[in-house]
Design a protein that fits this description.
Strand content: 35-45%
Shape: globular
Number of helices: 3
Oligomer: single chain
Strand order of the largest sheet: 2-1-6-5-4-3
Length: 138
């Protein structure tokens, strides 16, 4: 009997994970935080910049719903790699919040294949390329 760990990382897996990056921008740009949170594992973890980590789908949903209004989020330079059970992706992002200047940065996303074969985000971390206000880099 094959286990999830025995399943190879295929071109279809790579396409699926790229589609998850696309879905993320679609959900967030539409303000559909419930669909965004649903792509995470039940115990999913998000590490936003300059803030504590958020753990669990319900807490992720709360965080998203409290996020300032977004004009546009876009990802570029998306790369995904993995094996049959775990995968990771990196990208650049551009984020424009309403009435604020644009931000650019990078992210790292870790995916886990569930027992049903579907990929879910188990952890994500993103950080701005802009210096923290008042920092030495300004």
């Amino acid at each position: 009997m094959r286990t999830v760990a025995d399943v190879p990382f295929t071109e279809q897996d790579q396409a699926t994970l790229r589609q998850m990056f696309d879905a993320t921008t679609r959900f967030i740009n539409a303000g559909d935080w419930a669909s965004w949170a649903a792509i995470y594992t039940e115990d999913g973890l998000l590490q936003p910049p300059n803030a504590p980590s958020i753990k669990g789908r319900a807490k992720l949903l709360e965080w998203g719903q409290a996020f300032p209004p977004i004009e546009k989020l876009a990802f570029s330079d998306v790369e995904v790699h993995g094996d049959g059970k775990l995968a990771w992706g990196v990208s650049r992002y551009t984020l424009k919040l309403k009435d604020q200047s644009s931000d650019t940065g990078k992210q790292l996303v870790v995916f886990r294949r569930a027992a049903d074969g579907k990929w879910r985000v188990m952890a994500a971390s993103f950080s701005s390329d802009l210096p923290v206000p008042g920092s030495i880099d300004q």
